[in-house]
Amino acid sequence: MSSKQQREQFDRYKRDVEERGKPFFPFAMFHDTIMSLAVVSVIVALACIWYFTSGEEPGDAGVLGPRYEEEADPGTTSFVPRPDWYFYFLFYLLRIFKWPESVFLGTVGIPTIALILLVLMPFLDRRRERRLIRRPVAVVAALLVIASMGILTYKGATAEESLGAENLALVPEWVEQQGLSEEGAAGAEIFAQAGCMNCHTYLGAGATNLGAPDLSQEGDKGKGKEFQIEHLKCPSCVTPGSPMPPFPDFTDEQYNQLATFLEESKGPGGGG
Q1: Which of 136, 161, 186 is the last residue before a domain boundary?
Q2: Residue 143, Cα to own-chain centre: how many angstroms?
Q3: Is residue 104, in this structure, part of any structural domain at all?
Q4: Which of 267, 175, 272, 270 lies closest to 217 in space, CA to CA?
Q5: CA-to-CA distance for 142 and 151, rounded, in angstroms?
Q6: DSSP 3-state of 65
């Protein structure tokens, strides 16, 4: 479209507004402001009803439900976080784009590109035609977006998460690199699922929090299985001031397996 045609189209638009409609400012802006205030007022009113009709005790429901079901446990190792429903599509994208190779594309790249296209759309499509049958590309694009968002949201809502599932997939690699015994391999599975890697790292996986050490070569320290078991039962008793939570719910066999795993962890090729 030439600049002359653009000017002519803009002039026709101004004439149409003057003859048949009202300008965007201040009429449309005033209407949008009033509607926005109404929506915010409804949200604030619902929040007040929810808060003032519910009790402070866990599960004490009011008109719109309880404030919370149970008190938060900051030391939990079994909680599997899930997002609010409107982020389910992004939540499922994380299952498609794996860390670390492509997670940036799924969490930042695709949403950013989609947002940029949405912002540019009024500038890219300036035709006056608005009949759907005459706009096949726009209609197909809109249907694809709606379908993809709906499918990703559904898949994210129904996805079953298991604690340590990704870490558990690393166990065969640990067994091979460390030369773990059968009992050590069983301990590795416990280590991967019990929340240990929320604070510790092992052969490049996991996270470093609260000053927790890397345990890839824990067996080189010569502490012994008895020390490891006692430390698991009560870390602060063995190491005063330790922020590590105790793991009192393991069976004797599980304690022994986990201690064997730690003692056989002597770096790649060091177990057995």
Answers
A1: 161
A2: 26
A3: yes
A4: 267
A5: 14
A6: strand
What distance in Å separates the CA atoms of residue 265 and residue 150, rounded to the nearest whole number? 45
How confident is the prediction along the chain (272 residues), in pLDDT tens digits per residue?
A: 677 888 888 888 778 777 776 667 787 888 899 999 999 999 999 999 998 988 877 778 888 888 877 777 665 656 677 888 888 888 888 778 766 667 788 778 888 888 898 888 878 777 777 787 888 888 888 899 899 999 999 998 888 766 566 788 889 999 998 899 999 999 999 998 887 888 888 988 887 777 788 899 998 988 999 999 999 999 888 888 888 888 888 899 999 999 999 999 987 755 44
Q: Which of 161, 196, 226 is the last residue of a domain?
A: 161
Residue 272 lies in a domain: no
* 99 in any annotated domain: yes
In this structure, what token pair is assigned to residue 110?
């695709």
Based on the number of CB atoms within 10 Å of its own CB, is 37 exposed (0-12), middle (13-18) or buried (19 or more)? Answer: exposed
Return the structure tokens found at 33: 């402001």
Residues 171 and 253 in one domain: yes
Q: Provide the whole-model pTM.
A: 0.49
Same domain, 48 and 133: no
In DSSP terms, 205 is beta-bridged to 202
Query: Whole domain around residue 125: which residue ranges?
Result: 76-161
CA distance 228 to 218: 10
Per the listing, tokens 């009113």 go with: 45
Q: Which pair of tokens denotes residue 19?
A: 């003859």
14 domain residue, yes or no: yes
In this structure, is the dihedral angle defined by the CA atoms of residues 47, 50, 55 and 58, taken in order, positive or negative?
negative
